[in-house]
Automatic annotation (TrEMBL):
One of its GO terms (molecular function) is ubiquitin protein ligase activity. It comes from the Eukaryota. The gene is LOC111285941. InterPro entries: E3_UB_ligase_RBR, IBR_dom, TRIAD_supradom, Znf_RING, Znf_RING/FYVE/PHD. Its cofactor is Zn(2+). Residues 93-298, 97-145 form the RING-type domain. Might act as an E3 ubiquitin-protein ligase, or as part of E3 complex, which accepts ubiquitin from specific E2 ubiquitin-conjugating enzymes and then transfers it to substrates. The keyword Magnesium does not apply. This is RBR-type E3 ubiquitin transferase. One of its GO terms (biological process) is protein ubiquitination. Its EC number is 2.3.2.31. Gene3D superfamilies: 1.20.120.1750, 2.20.25.20, Zinc/RING finger domain, C3HC4 (zinc finger) (3.30.40.10). It comes from Durio zibethinus.
């Protein structure tokens, strides 16, 4: 009985001492500290008391050592980690976004260059996008009468790549408002070019796609046709332009399907894709055996 009395007496005294200290903590600390103390109390209640008995010989009195180990290691880790995270959340500085008017953690904020206003990153991106939709490239701070200004390089890290490139392109265009802007007419290029008016040239080679186009007509270069005639044909429609091109290139129409055919080399005997064979020189129906037109042979 002496051994068990000693064991329980020592255990009870330690529990009383721990709970007394815990009670003192609850009295002295604030509400946040009391919350921390409650969690500490739950942790201590999950602690077990173990004994280690050493018996070198039967004639020597048993020596008992006491030490504390948590009942569940994972539970202890969870208790302390949750306690730490809650303390961090409570004490983390916050700000109110000037756009959505919601409190946000300060470490995920974005402030405008030249002023002290803070915004959500998401709100800032949407604000810039809305301004570009309105063709506004000089974007000020959203707060009225604020001198802060949003700049592409300053905002680059938070913007999607396509939005950043769109902003840069809009700034380039606005920088040349007083100049004549020309776009490369080829759809797969469409590069923005500036006509400085120094050279009165009509055909111009795009520095990006390396193809030639007419500066005055703003179309692919119309070889063999001056701009006045081209504009006249353009008003008549694409059919008139095709007929004019066929005359200049000396294309022939198939007598059967009326599609234009161009001969690149060889004799005058041609065969259309519809299957009809005719003489490219005179247009008469022919084959290699029966057609001996004097105009076709020299």
């Amino acid at each position: 009985m002496g051994f068990f009395q000693k064991y329980f007496s020592h255990h009870i005294q330690q529990r009383i001492s721990l709970k007394s200290k815990l009670a003192a903590l609850r009295i002295s600390y604030s509400k946040k500290s009391r919350n921390m103390g409650n969690k500490m109390g739950k942790f201590l209640n999950n602690v077990k008391c173990k004994k280690s008995v050493e018996t070198p010989s039967s004639n020597v009195e048993e020596e008992v050592n006491y030490y504390f180990t948590p009942s569940e290691d994972l539970e202890m880790e969870h208790n302390f980690s949750s306690l730490s995270s809650e303390t961090h959340d409570d004490t983390s500085p916050t700000y109110v976004c000037e756009i959505c008017v919601e409190p946000r953690p300060l470490d995920i904020s974005f402030n405008v260059k030249g002023c002290a206003h803070f915004y959500c990153i998401g709100c800032t991106v949407k604000y810039i996008e809305s301004k570009l939709d309105d063709n506004v490239t000089r974007i000020p701070c959203p707060v009225t009468n604020c001198q802060g200004l949003l700049e592409p390089d300053f905002c680059r890290d938070i913007l999607p790549r396509d939005l950043f490139n769109r902003w840069g392109k809009a700034l380039c265009e606005s920088a040349f408002l007083g100049s004549e802007k020309i776009y490369c007419p080829y759809k797969d290029c469409s590069a923005l070019l500036i006509n400085d008016g120094k050279n009165a040239t009509k055909n111009f080679r795009c520095p990006f796609c390396k193809r030639v186009f007419c500066v005055q007509c703003k179309v692919a270069w119309h070889s063999g046709v001056d701009c006045a005639k081209f504009q006249k044909l353009k008003k008549l429609g694409s059919d008139a332009m095709l007929v004019d091109l066929a005359k200049r290139k000396k294309w022939r129409q198939c007598p059967k399907c009326n599609y234009y055919v161009e001969k690149s080399a060889g004799c005058y005997y041609v065969k259309c894709r519809c299957g009809n064979a005719f003489c490219y020189n005179c247009g008469a129906k022919s084959n290699r055996v029966t057609h001996f037109c004097s105009e076709c042979y020299h």
